[in-house]
Design brief:
Length: 205
């Protein structure tokens, strides 16, 4: 951690970073293991890869500041609730003085089955309320990583969508979920290190 402390300094203005990764979720222990919080979970895995801790409280977020292969990164978990994610993202852009194109937003996707992930350079919000809030705040021109949370079994009914995403993975899904979260963290790392297009080529197959 000393290396990162020297890199970023202490106190004063925020560090200069190359990229900001935002994992979407809801704050609070009651939401921690739910499908809707896979963005938080991927952010936590990525922070471990950067050897960084969520020690900074700023921009309505908990932030881990570190580096991955020389790429300086701030990894954020917004502490607004999901529907107000845009407020935190706007503050993160202002704090680190970066453009939306230097963001990577990670979130759960009910239109993708568990085990699938998809990277995109930009686009609309789809049906995700957190993404709707972000697009409303900063526009559509930012990269995003969608992590599938729909049942792997296409015959399984989701039922009420809100209730579904706010439940944890079932026991028989947990191994697949862990693999998917690890793969998503790997995809985020490649996007940071090599760029979004090489990451799309590698992980969108």
């Amino acid at each position: 951690m000393a290396r990162f402390a020297r890199l970023f300094g202490r106190g004063g203005s925020p560090p200069r970073v190359d990229r900001v990764v935002v994992g979407l979720g809801n704050p609070g222990e009651g939401y921690a293991g739910t499908r809707h919080n896979v963005g938080f979970q991927v952010a936590s895995r990525l922070a471990k890869r950067a050897r960084a801790e969520f020690a900074v409280k700023a921009a309505d977020s908990r932030i881990a500041e570190g580096a991955i292969d020389g790429v300086r990164v701030a990894i954020a978990r917004p502490q607004t609730f999901m529907n107000d994610s845009g407020r935190a993202v706007r503050k993160l852009l202002d704090r680190y003085r970066i453009q939306p194109s230097d963001l990577l937003v990670v979130f759960d996707e009910v239109d993708l089955p568990l085990g699938k992930i998809r990277l995109r350079e930009k686009g609309g919000p789809g049906t995700h309320n957190g993404m709707r809030s972000i697009v409303s705040a900063i526009g559509e021109d930012f990269p995003r990583l969608r992590v599938g949370v729909a049942p792997a079994d296409p015959l399984r009914e989701i039922g009420d969508l809100v209730e579904y995403v706010l439940t944890p993975f079932d026991a028989d899904e947990r191994a697949a979920a862990e693999t998917s979260l690890t793969r998503a963290a790997e995809a985020a790392e490649v996007a940071l290190r090599e760029g979004i297009q090489p990451a799309m080529t590698k992980f969108n197959g």
